[in-house]
Amino acid sequence: MGGDMNHFPEPQRMDRAMRQKADLRQVNLNGEPTWRARNSKLYRLVARVRRQPLEDLEAQLDVLLYRGAFEPIDVRVVDIMSDHRAIVARFVLKEPLGSIQSPASTNLS
Fold first, then answer.
1. What is the reported pTM?
2. Cβ proximity of 64 and 89 under 8 Å
3. Is the Cβ–Cβ distance between 27 and 89 less than 8 Å?
4. What gap in Å lies between CA 45 and CA 79, rounded to an integer?
5. Which residues contact 104 (CB under 8 A, 6 or more apart)?
6. Can you spell out the DSSP letters for 88-104?
7. Residue ranges with strand state E in the chain
8. How many CA atoms lie within 13 A of 40 on its CB side?
C-alpha cells in the first residue's frame, strides 16, 4: 500500500507519531532524490543566484513505508512525468502466510 503526505522539508511530528504507532519502517533509498530541482523554474533561478549546482537543491521528499512480514528486495527511484520521481519497490514475505495475523485480529488502538 502506498500513500502521500506532503510535508516539506521533513516529516512533521504527526507523521512521526503515526509511523511509530503503526510500526512502519521506511524503505532505504540510499539518498536518491525523489524531487528534481531541474523541474522548478524557481529553483533553477535560486541555483543561478547562489552559483551552486542545481543538483545540490534536489531532495528526498517522498518515502515508502512498510511493516510486518514484508522485506524490500529491489528498490528504485525512477523519473516519471511529474515534479517528483516514483519509488518502485519489490517485496518478499519473510514469514509463511499462515503466521501473519489477519487484519480482523490486528489491534491498531
1. 0.69
2. yes
3. yes
4. 22
5. none
6. EEEEEESS-GGGSPPGG
7. 25-26, 65-66, 70-78, 86-93
8. 16
